[in-house]
Amino acid sequence: MNHLPEPARVVQLPDGTYVYADQLPATQQPTATLQVVHQHIHPDRTVQRIALGSGVGAGAVAAGVYFGPLLVGALTAIAANLALLAFLAVALAWGVVTVVKSVGGPDGKAAAKALSKSRRRR
Fold this sequence. Notes:
By secondary structure, this protein is mainly alpha-helical. Helix 2 packs across helix 3. The longest helix has about 45 residues. It is rod-shaped and about 95 Å long. It starts with 7 loop residues before the first strand and ends with a helix.
């Protein structure tokens, strides 16, 4: 079964421009000289065609196709590593504060209180 929508009908007008068949000007009657073009849209290929049409070479398009997903993967890996490091820093800071409060006696509790007050002022 094919669940894809029917491709859009594109018609070439006598002046050389292309329009969708359902958007023909009301004053012009479709004639036998119109050429019907079936257009299938593929998002990846569309971006490549736009890039090639703007004067970018095929090598640059191929590099973008190859390195684009590679860059996304690398940035995702970096973000995951930074998130893990941030979580570890929070866990270690919490552990240090807990140990200082429990083992340090009154001096440790006073130091923890002074530290929490200094953070509130910022």
